């Protein structure tokens, strides 16, 4: 907190590429020049204004890795925060990110896809090793068991009431919001 200003009043448009000014040298952790910084569960910094995101972006390191199973959870801004940590110039500056990528255009989506393909290492469950031809990760076989239960008379009454209420609510919703020209029978 000595170096990182309070984020509550910070505007997204003011977010620039991380500046490692002289003030960083006054904090021991920020003055170390790391060989490698690996950010596990990197989706935790999806809010670029959070203190955690700002702190890890200020760390000095020759190489940076961001490890996550979900680089984008809710919106494109989640990816911006990771690019800022990785220092992917010029997209680590918010104004350029907004102008070129997060602008709700087809070209913006294409740029996002290009960025993701360029920096993302992806592994799937069925992927096999190029060397051995074996699966990279051996997963156990899926084991499913069906348990049939019978409801008591009072449980069945409650279930039927809840089911009827949900069905009526869905029917009312559809009648209100579905375009009347649509084929209601299909819906």
Helix and strand layout, with pairings?
Elements: H1 28-31, E1 33-40, H2 51-58, E2 60-67, H3 77-86, H4 94-100, H5 106-119, H6 153-177
Parallel strand pairs: 1-2
What's the quick description here?
This protein is mainly alpha-helical.
How does this structure look, described?
The longest helix is centred in the last third of the chain and has 25 residues, at 153-177. The chain is 36% helix and 9% strand. It is mainly alpha-helical and 187 residues long. The model has no long low-confidence stretch (mean pLDDT 82). Helix 2 (51-58) runs parallel beside helix 3.
Number of strands: 2
Q: Choose one word for the global shape.
A: extended
Structural category is mainly alpha
Encode the helix/strand succession as letters: HEHEHHHH
Terminal Cα separation, in Å?
55 Å
Major sheet: 2 strands, parallel
Proportion in β-strands: 5-15%
Mean pLDDT: 82
Number of alpha- plus pi-helical segments: 6
Radius of gyration: 25 Å
Poorly predicted residue ranges? none
Q: Strand order of the main beta sheet, please?
A: 1-2
Helical content class: 25-40%
Main attributes?
187 residues, mainly alpha, two-stranded parallel sheet, 36% helix, extended
